[in-house]
Amino acid sequence: xxxxxxxxxxxxxxxFFFSIMLILSIAIVFDMTxxxxxxxEDQLTWKEIILGYYIHFIPYYANMFSSLFxxxxxxxxxxxxAGNSEIxxxxxxxxxxxxxxxxxxxxxxxxxxxxxxxAGYVIPPASQHxxxxxxxxxxxxxxxxxxxxQMEVEPGTILYIETFQRRTSLGYRASLEHFDxxxxxxxxxxxxxxxxxxxxxxxxxxxxxxFDGMRETLTRGERLDTIIPIEPDELFMTAESAQMMTNPELxxxxxxxxxxxxxxxxxFETEWHKRWAGAIGAFIMTLLGVTMxxxxxxxxxxxxxxxxxxxxxSYILFSTVSTTFSVNGVMSPFMAAWLxxxxxxxxxVALYFQVRR
Length: 357
Prior knowledge:
Largest sheet: 6 strands, antiparallel
Number of helices: 9
Number of domains: 2
Strand order of the largest sheet: 1-2-3-4-5-6
Strand content: 15-25%
Shape: elongated
Distance between the termini: 25 Å
Number of strands: 6
């Protein structure tokens, strides 16, 4: 690494972190203004507000705005280099355009690692804290009841619960069916189902039917203790729950959900791919930014910034729309997460070959 490389890296990362801190400061001021009445109504101290809410607010929004500000940061300082004819001098000294891009992609690698770490390990627990804080002080988001839950809890075993209450760990009108291949071997129905501990569940007022060919054995009872490999929290999983899982938790849940045949697993797969696609976006935004602004043009920085903001807004909109299609089952999670990156990578590569000439 040469002095010039460190100069570009410092300019890139310095501009990025400064712009992120600036926009987050503005976002916090607006959010605090909106929620100030709620804070004072609950008599929260500044320590509770900052450590309970805003310390978890920052990583989520920093990562959300990262693509936009990577692009803007690159355009901002590269346009200044081009406007001062510094890039012409660099290339005229014998440095190839590929070598000129090296410090940009070293910086992008740093932001890639930071984004992947935030998305996979910092933001999920922060989102959980935000939800808990919001539930307690603003408005209730967490569901206390769920209805019509049906899933394969283990191969050949189907659980159905009509209604389940989180607070009491009690469900009503449940059934547990066991299959051997496609043949139903037994079916238990119960008026109530109660979670005891770990995977231990209790069926109350139950009827058990065992099938052996055309023969059926009927058993009734008031209580039946059984092992069902599922926890109550798993009955309340929604698409939003994916954002509150770290990468290992998300991966483990997807494997369990696929084995059980859960219907909402697509939302979790979309979140998994979106985290990696968002981190890889640092390289694509860097390529787009430097190829757009490394040439001295009329209009200067203002023109480049304007085009950059439009392109980045299009990228974010494209990602949001494709994610919605995936969650609704119109598009595969992999395609929904990676298609915006592919489209903008093609644009970036085309600009690269044009500027390189």
